[in-house]
Amino acid sequence: MNIQHSSRMDMWFTPIDIIERARRVLGEIDLDPASCAEANERVKATKYYTEAENGLTLPWYGKIFCNPPGGKTGNKSNTVLFWQKLMDSDFEDAIFLCFSLEAMQTTQQAGNGVASCAFCVPRRRIAFDKPDGTRGKAPSHSNCIVYVHRRVDASAKFVAEFEDLGTVRL
Fold first, then answer.
1. Does 142 have pLDDT greater than 80?
2. Bigger pLDDT: 103 vs 168
3. Residue 71 — left, alpha, or beta (φ > 0 → left; ψ -120 to 50 → alpha)?
């Protein structure tokens, strides 16, 4: 995979605050399909898939937290590939972090796009963390936090956890 969150660094971690919000919505995190041991110290998923394992080729299940890698695999956006895998999987609930709002447009081609789910567009761009725990500079584009839920009552939890970050649409 060609990870391009920054031209100088491949690894960027989701801020702990967002992971904690996601955990409160999901209850627990069964799977993080795009991770590593260092990132899982934050996410605390029961199971995670590393880049070497290639989560796109393995089963996704349960309650999922996914911050997909940036860049492309072949000529396809990794965001789109990971989104398609999520939509093709049998899972309970998922929170999917889109590094760029461009996902609203590019996932439409997958049939079940990001915009068809509950989502939060933060007022401020998310400044991701470096592996050493220091906060990086916010990217030059907006982000989106998407909630794909199977439980009828679950969207209220998502709203309660994320509405103070920005605009939430159900």
1. no
2. 168
3. left
